[in-house]
Amino acid sequence: MKLNELKDNPGATKDRARVGRGIGSGKGKTSARGQKGQKARSGGAKNGFEGGQMPIYRRLPKRGFKNPFALHFAVVNLDTIQNAIDAGKLDATSIDADALLTARIITKKRDGIRLLARGAITTAINITVNSASKAAEEAVKKAGGSITKA
Fold it and tell me: What is 74-149's CATH number, 1.20.1270.10, 3.100.10.10, 3.30.70.860, 2.60.40.10?
């Protein structure tokens, strides 16, 4: 079988209805849209319009707040770093945002790197991050490493 020999099974596809092509077609004159009015015109109905009733998006109260100054960190856990070191993707002597990007541990730098304490670290690492949890700092120091905050 070749690509140019591929075709649908008989009856698997239907031709589109050609509307407005004369009375003999059965879909002439009004093109199966009935008589006049908004729905017979192109464009159809207005989105969210409920026939004059107060629309649901105006009946419900506004909620929430989005802080425009919030920082979004790229999160890295200790076990992820340990696995990368064991796999030879990271050099334990100097780990920073660029090294994490190269090792594909993070995909974007975002507003900085935040180190969290999931898992365990056994290697002494020197890491530069923007933020770290207290548990992560203690775990790195316990393993003989250091954390530099940028």
Answer: 3.100.10.10
